[in-house]
Predict the 3D structure of the following.
Amino acid sequence: MLKVKNIIKYYGSNMAVDNLSFEVQNGEIFGLLGANGAGKTTTFRIIMGLLDANHGSVTLDGKKIDYKLVEKIGFVTEERSLLTKLTVNDQLIYYGILKGMSEDEIVKKMDYWLDRFKISEYKNRKIKELSKGNQQKIQFIAAIINDPKLLILDEPFTGLDPINVKMFKEAILELKDNGCSIIFSSHQMEHIEEFCEKLVILVKGKVVLEGYLNDIKKEYQKQNIFIQGDVDVSKLEKIAGVLEVVQNSGEYVVRIVNKDVVKNVFSIVSKFENITKFVVEEASLNEIFISKVGESYEK
């Protein structure tokens, strides 16, 4: 289990991380979110021991993270950090040795993941000869080749097409099932909703929202009603509690303040003709993120 407790980090007089605390259990995927400059990268570097916090502590399985424990952490960065003149084989052996593995162990794991990601034929190719998507696969393999106890994923799907995103998702869930603690950071909120039960949202280093995703959605209260058919928008906009009505991809989205407004909207919609869809959904994490981050910047 990873435990981050009361982390504070200053750069000069600028506070980059403001009293941040969270825990990631074994076999859990935790979302760490925030706009650019929110303090996520600083937090990752503190967790990995690359930066010292001014206050607070970070432990993995109850132990302070030192050089030996760093070997048990995998990190996939948004920017690729590969030695492009090396072959895939040499690159992965190099990283595996840095993580304390024997060459036999490295080759066994390498062959498994290259086959899993359908790039075995590139084993003796130089990194610079690979596509961006295949380079991202090599970066991912380098991060997990030693079966890490903790895996940090910062925008891991950058440069991947939908088929390769699916491969990555399956690999991430396999690591989770094997007990790996995973921190997932992305600006693509649909991925966070798919993977993470718990999350923290940072703004300028300070937590503005935290907790279980289901609880966060319930507390937010605002909901969306999706309607298809012949809709009189003006009538819907006059209903108390309707925030706005927008047309999106052949359907209307009615944003409401809470679930109590649903019955009033349905009462009006039931009088329209050719209604083929009336679906009520909780607000998306993307909407909640924009709301909470926007509120904090306006203060």
